[in-house]
Write a structure and sequence with these properties.
Helix content is 23%, strand content 31%. By secondary structure, the chain is of the alpha+beta class. The strands form 2 sheets. It has a 5-stranded antiparallel sheet with strand order 1-2-3-6-7, sandwiched between helices. A 3-stranded antiparallel sheet has the order 4-5-8. The protein is globular and about 40 Å long. The structure holds zinc ion (ZN).
Length: 166
Amino acid sequence: MALRTIRIEGDPVLNRTCREVKELTPRLQDLIDDMLETMYDANGVGLAAPQVGILKRLVVIDTTGDNPLVLINPVIVEREGEQTGEEGCLSLPGKAAQVTRPQRVVAEALDRNMQPIRIEGEDLLARAICHELDHLDGHLYTEFAEGPVHDVNYDEDEMYEEEGEE
Ligand code: ZN
């Protein structure tokens, strides 16, 4: 496994539409492992393939830190309710903005063995699913932001502890 470089806003790869994954290859399995490692290393709750420069419909999400989800060719099939809250993105480090998302979504996808799965997410997981799937169509949350995209001040002690776990 290896860390991949996270592409930053302004990189044109973040505005492209991704292609469906047609088959599972060892290269794709490596990509999935690298994306998970890169997401955890960056303390993110989700990462989409275009964020590491790969135009494939693949995202990884983990909102709890111990439940990695791999979604291949994901599609949202149900949306319910509304939530408005702060949202950030690993491609816009140190920034956040208010974004309204569904309170609950259901997504259908393939898992990393290309088996169909159905994921129901509420609250943060619903937000993460919507956010990561937007990346696959070249959209960043800043397009939907309500109010300014602002700086976020991370707790430095907390960041130090996270880095110390390596
Ligand atoms: Zn993002």
